[in-house]
Amino acid sequence: MEHSSDGNPKTAQGPEDVFLSLIGEKPVPVGRLAKMIEGCASIGQRASWTDLLADTLRERREPEGVLEFLEWAAAEQGGAPGFRERCVSMLTAASTDQRSKAFLAAVPVAALDPGESLRRLRLLYSVRKGLHVHDKTWGCGVVSGVDAFYGKVTVDFRRKRNHALGFSHVAASLEVLPDGHLLSRFMSDPESVRRTVSDDPAGLVKAVLKSFGPSDVSRIQQILTEEIIPAEGWKTFWDAARKGLKSDPLVEIPSRRSEPLRLLDREQTCDASWYARLAAESDPETVLSKVAEALACGAPGVEARRVLASKLSYVAWAMEKTRPDLAARAAVLAESAMLGQADGWNAGKVRDALGAEREFIGAVTGLPAREIGPFLRFLSADDPAGFRALALRVLGNLTLPALSECIALTVEQGAENEVIAELGRLFAGRSVPVNVLAWSCRNLEKVFTGVGVGHADFFFRLVQAVGAPEGGERLRNQNGIRKLLQDSTWLKGVCDGMQPDERVLSLERVRTAADLDQGTSRGILAALVVLYPDLRQKMRDDGEAAEVKAVRAKPRFTSWRTYRERQEQLRDIVENQIPANSREIEQARSYGDLRENAEYKFAKEHQRLLHLRLAEFERDLKEVRGTDFEGLPTDRAGVGTRVVFRRPDGREEACEIMGEWDRDAAFGIISCKSRLSESLDGKAPGDEAVVPSGTGDQRCVVVSVAPLSDAARTWARERVGAPAAPSGDADGADLAPGENAS
Length: 742
Prior knowledge:
By secondary structure, the protein is α+β, with helices and mostly antiparallel strands. Helices cover about 60% and strands about 10% of the residues. It has 36 helices and 14 strands. Helix 4 packs antiparallel against helix 7, helix 11 crosses helix 13 and helix 20 (about 370-380) packs across helix 22 (about 400-410). The longest helix is centred in the C-terminal third of the chain and has 30 residues, at about 560-590. The radius of gyration is 33 Å and the shape is globular.
């Protein structure tokens, strides 16, 4: 019998007759029958028809029909008790051919969430020859074959042709690219897509947003530099794309870099009613977001400008003390809108409020990096000399982006000598702020030739900085410096300016730095040895023997948290860095004559460094034991104790002494290898101890010794949980109760 497109018969028949007629067709038209079930007024009839459809599909053994039925049922029953078991039962009964059995074997339906199970099966059923796909490891590719007998899908990836993937991997990780998807277009016509890099950069970014959904800048960069844009060409491309995106009404650009860009369905409009809602808004952050929307809509009229000035003034006055960064953003938006006194915007008053040291630091610390420059220009407009004096006065307290912008603007205003003088003063101090050092690492030539800092002294300052306890943004700067010190390519720019005896001295400074953790120390030493092989014999002669002796003389412990972190670092070297280096070597070999092949020599040097670090990490993890610090004596200062001591001026300070890789200034956690820990080691309440301070050593009194605080114990366990105590093997033995590690 013929039926109309909506499932109703062309002749007069009841719904039940139509349903029974449709269910007799082969294959069963699941979609049409599901629509009829949804239209049932009677709950009983709905349940009856659903069961009939399920039974028919099970009997007919139509696996794709069963899958379509379960996908439909999952929307209403996915969370119901027994639905997972129903999926297993129906799919097992229907999967009788080789292909369906192989697909079902690759998806653990009984263990996964039903929705995820069905998604994976649908993907497997959709895979066919010629389909464009994407894998997070191998990138874009075209399916060249599906082998149900061996359970494999063969894909011609752009980076590896004829690559076989198991059905399980395909179901879990492979992404099918629709025809209009950017990567699908790239597979079909790569040159056409690459032309848009220069011809229409903003359009290429919009294509990313359309294909991948809202994405922040980092995600967009990751997508495009995978195959479409060379990594070294990203900055040029993004500068051009950003200009086009700013004038595109269909692209919503956030105020912060970490927030996603969005593609709008229709152009934003800001009419009178929209401005009326803005005028009634009282949340400062919402106000700023709405004002940014208004400016994206085009030049505001006279009344609109008054509303904008009123709301931005409200944010500036309300937030100048508690959230000066929001007040600064209001100022930046007002400048973008070119608001003035006639609109009700008093720029001079805002400059005065945000020109105080506390408010200035708070503003530039909280602003998105791309808004710091415009804010500094706003602040310096009336009094450039006053701005420079303020910026240089607080240079050591600024975040790295703010410090960089302040220096750049000061130099632009012709006051480079003032910058050099202030940097010279900071480098002449006992210690240099870590943010200044992080900036200096990016501007070595200015530091060495302008400020006149010696190469060896600069290296010592860096080693000193990475051993100091830091937190927050300073900790990020510290970690960046730590990474550079272990990068032989970057380190060469510092150490090539030293005399040979200065390099030996630098080596000794690293080896004897008490505040450096063992991993960092060995990483720096390894980088130095790669650059200057003559230092290897120096280490072998008078370093390694003493180190081994010290290790054997005293047990070494660390928390389970940092022990697992070190394991993850080792895994990264083995699974990521060494394979990547092997690919670099193979690529360098293809360039020809190895005697004159700089890429090959560098890759081999990098290989030697990686294997040296691998051996050191493995040795560390064998010699250092994880612990939860339970059962340790707490009558004297040592590992696993919280010590309170009194400075000569009466101030009391507390520290939590933990393992040799443990440190976190925010929790007062220090390594048992730190100078402070070693100064307190073995001391009881009432004992005196000579401890380090910012101005030299001080004689202090131990006030109390107690077990670690709950916060410290939580810190030690929070990443990996507190594992059960191992059985006592050398690789992971915990402290036994009563064993004093100090």
